[in-house]
Amino acid sequence: MKPSEKTRRSFLKNAAAISAASAFPSIITKAAGPWGAPYKKAGEKVNLACVGIGNQGGSDVKSFAKTGLANFVAFCDVDMGAPQTQEVLKMFPDVPRFQDFRTMFDKMGNQIEAVTVGIPDHSHFAVVMMAMGLGKHVYVEKPMARTFNEVELMMKAARKYDKLVTQMGNQGHSEANYFQFKAWKDAGIIKDVTAITAHMNSARRWHGWDSNINKYPAAEPIPASLDWNTWHGVVDPIHDYNHDYINGQWRCWYDFGMGALGDWGAHLIDTAHQFLDLGLPYEVKMLKAEGHNSFFYPQSSTILFRFPARGNMPACDITWYDGVNNVPPIPAGYGVMGLDPNIPPPSNGELKPAKLNPGKIIYGKDLTFKGGSHGATLSIIPEEKAKEMASKLPEVPKSTSDHYANFLKSCKGEEQTRSPFAIAGPLSQVFCLGVMAQKLNATISFDRNTKKITNDKMMNDMLVGMPPRKGWEQYYKV
């Protein structure tokens, strides 16, 4: 029996057993902590397997190591010979290594308690679903998955395997902005928000590409150390290898990545989305798509996401801007903080539209806020208003753990994850809808209750996406 077939049968057998008898592996049946995860003794580490150990995945490995809470039991990467993976392997030479996550689970499954997933967007889904089906806690990089339906199934799995800990890797969700936004919202400082501007105006990998191309890149020799077949995951058909698909270049293509929105959206609007209870939009509208084509992302995009009134909160629009010269309107009193430090201010001292660091502007009824990305805190603008409000601001608690420690402490039953699939899933689905609007350069009318697109059947079918390639269908069953 081929390893992949053996692993597939093992996955289905174990998943069926879990479903039928709630027979989670031994780590799940220990005495549980307050979040459902098992208690572990003081100082006891979590047995962690890492799928993806180069680039962002490698950064995650190093960050988990710094917590002192992880015991690495397996590393998996489709290219163990790449310089970025070799760097991590030299740091941890004794950790067993694999190129195919299915083989890793087949051989090491009984030693693994939790899994990190730091690989291209299109590959997240299958690894996460297999890990959860085998009873493993999961930390997956943002965005959760590439299609709306994949995210939906991941949330469904999290509800089914409710004793498992999940976390999406939007690291700022465990830093200062998370605690500040919550404290300011609870205290009524942030209220009656009707509009948010989110902007990412730095150069992206595909900027400058010819938008008139009508085919994928030409075939190149596959590096000897790369498992190109497994790299594709669920995507069908397999593309000819080209260097413009790997090492972060996958983010450029609709077939594999989520562009600037999927990359940066989770670092810019995550706290607003959660604490303003935005959920899913009722409309997504392309306002600008410069360099639009069918293969890779536009040179610049402006996307309007419209959210209805929620409880006592008014309707709210989020306008997303990406592209080097596609900067948003800047309100009076914005100040100079947040400008790209490499761009000198005008000689007259007046702020004019210029390249900005990634950030957001939040417009409430009485107050306006500006902020950066990740864990950067908000400021009230203009400065005079900030001074007036200074004595009224509530105390903001400090974080008890960074995003990585938060996940591992949750696996140990000590904390609750701050970006579980129940919270990160709807946010990721917002990005899936935005990417669909980018690809089609169209307006999407969306029913939040039925989770269906109502103005175009073809677009509604795209919520599910193309069928997975043969041999990968089992991951779509919960």
Q: Using the alpha-carbon principal axes, give the shape.
A: globular
Low-pLDDT ranges: 14-31
Number of helices: 15
What Rg is obtained from the alpha carbons, in whole angstroms? Answer: 22 Å
CATH superfamily of the largest domain: NAD(P)-binding Rossmann-like Domain
User: Which architecture of the largest domain would the CATH scheme give at its second level?
Assistant: 3-Layer(aba) Sandwich
What portion of the residues fall into strands of 2 or more residues? 15-25%
Number of strands: 15
Give the biggest beta sheet. 9 strands, mixed
Distance between the termini: 25 Å
Please give the share of residues in helix. Answer: 25-40%
CATH class of the largest domain: Alpha Beta
Examine the coordinates and then state which fold CATH places here, giving the name of the CATH topology of the largest domain.
Rossmann fold
Q: Tags for this entry?
A:
single chain, 478 residues, alpha/beta, Rossmann fold, Dihydrodipicolinate Reductase, domain 2, nine-stranded mixed β-sheet, six-stranded parallel β-sheet, 15 strands, 31% helix, 16% strand, globular
Textual characterization of the structure:
The chain contains 15 helices and 15 strands. The strands form 2 sheets. A 9-stranded mixed sheet has the order 13-12-11-7-10-9-8-14-15. The protein has 2 domains: 206 residues, 3-Layer(aba) Sandwich (Rossmann fold); 193 residues, Dihydrodipicolinate Reductase, domain 2. With 478 residues, it is of the alpha/beta class. The longest helix has 20 residues. Helices cover 31% and strands 16% of the residues. Helix 6 packs parallel to helix 7, helix 7 runs antiparallel to helix 14 and helix 10 packs antiparallel against helix 14.
